[in-house]
């Protein structure tokens, strides 16, 4: 999952994409946050625990939201490709670390910290608890004294058409892809929306789908790719090329099979005949 996290955050780290995700999901498409109002902040946080050792937390993406050089908030995005039961505890750790850093900086004004989780799974909804109190067995006598903490999960593959229409960046293409992929596992991309960050979108799709054809496109054939329609065209071409390759391979196997059978008829044992015919071990000769 680490590789998936790294790939996702390459795309989301662009200010236009980050702002678009926050505006689209939190503000219903209202352009509250502008890309130019975002500034990177550290995703690493160090703290000294009771064991006297220095520990480090690393979140996926975190940015300062500023307006006219006045800091308003710290926004974070976490990515999940699978459901993680203890995710709420991770989020409270990230947010707590952000507040701790502000205290260490002796800031005159503390900034609110907001973290959202993007869930890219397509086979099921996020079916785990989102509040820390729901993940613990708390004695009734203590319940009123235990503070709760809730994380906010957005299921990308289950976004509505209206929600997707709120996006203006490449994340609109990504969201639409996962929605269609959930509805049809054999979905071939047909979104004509122009892609700005081609490399990052293709890398994300490759890692999240496990389809290495996307990797081949962004490594060798990305020239001329402007939309998912171009991607679909290349996928079709690669499928044809693969079919030709398989056909040739099957032709070679048939030839080797014929040589093998003739050698057997001439008195060679099966092992020697297979070796001389260069017939792969996984091919079982027809009786």
Could you give a quick summary of the protein structure above?
The protein is of the alpha/beta class. The protein contains ten helices and seven strands. The longest helix has 38 residues, at 228-265.
Characteristic terms for this protein:
10 helices, 7 strands, 45% helix, five-stranded mixed β-sheet, alpha/beta, 287 residues
Task: Give a verbal description of the structure.
This protein has 287 residues and is an alpha/beta fold. Helices cover 45% and strands 15% of the residues. The chain contains ten helices and seven strands. It has a five-stranded mixed sheet, with helices on both faces. β2 and β3 form a beta hairpin. α7 packs antiparallel against α8 and α9 crosses α10. The longest helix has 38 residues. About 5% of the residues have low confidence.
The strands making up the biggest β-sheet line up spatially as 1-4-5-6-7
Largest sheet, described in full? 5 strands, mixed
Q: What is the CA–CA distance across the termini?
A: 46 Å
Low-confidence stretches: 45-50, 240-247
Tally of DSSP helical segments:
10
SSE series: HHEEEEEHEHEHHHHHH
The average pLDDT score comes to 82
Helix content: 40-55%
Tell me which oligomeric state these chains represent: single chain
| Shape estimate | elongated
Strand content: 5-15%
Number of β-strand runs? 7
Sheet/helix structural class: alpha/beta
| Cα Rg | 26 Å
């Amino acid at each position: 999952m680490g590789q998936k996290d790294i790939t996702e955050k390459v795309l989301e780290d662009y200010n236009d994409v980050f702002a678009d995700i926050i505006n689209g999901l939190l503000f219903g498409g209202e352009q509250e946050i502008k890309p130019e109002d975002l500034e990177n902040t550290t995703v690493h946080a160090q703290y000294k625990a009771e064991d006297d050792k220095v520990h480090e937390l690393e979140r996926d993406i975190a940015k300062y939201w500023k307006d006219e050089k006045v800091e308003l908030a710290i926004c974070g995005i976490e990515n999940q490709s699978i459901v993680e039961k203890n995710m709420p505890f991770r989020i409270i750790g990230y947010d707590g670390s952000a507040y701790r850093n502000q205290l260490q900086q002796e800031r005159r004004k503390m900034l609110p910290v907001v973290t959202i989780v993007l869930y890219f799974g397509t086979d099921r909804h996020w079916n785990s608890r989102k509040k820390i109190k729901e993940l613990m067995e708390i004695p009734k006598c203590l319940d009123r004294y235990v503070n709760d903490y809730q994380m906010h999960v957005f299921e990308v593959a289950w976004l509505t058409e209206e929600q997707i229409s709120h996006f203006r960046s490449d994340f609109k293409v990504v969201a639409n892809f996962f929605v269609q992929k959930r509805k049809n596992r054999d979905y071939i991309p047909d979104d004509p929306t122009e892609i700005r960050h081609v490399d990052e979108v293709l890398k994300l799709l490759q890692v999240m789908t496990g389809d290495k054809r996307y990797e081949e496109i962004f490594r060798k054939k990305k020239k001329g790719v402007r939309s998912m329609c171009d991607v679909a065209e290349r996928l079709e071409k690669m499928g044809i090329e693969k079919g030709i390759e398989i056909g040739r391979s099957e032709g070679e196997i048939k030839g080797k099979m014929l040589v093998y059978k003739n050698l057997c008829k001439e008195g060679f044992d099966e092992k020697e005949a297979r070796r001389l015919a260069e017939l792969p071990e996984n091919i079982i000769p027809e009786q």
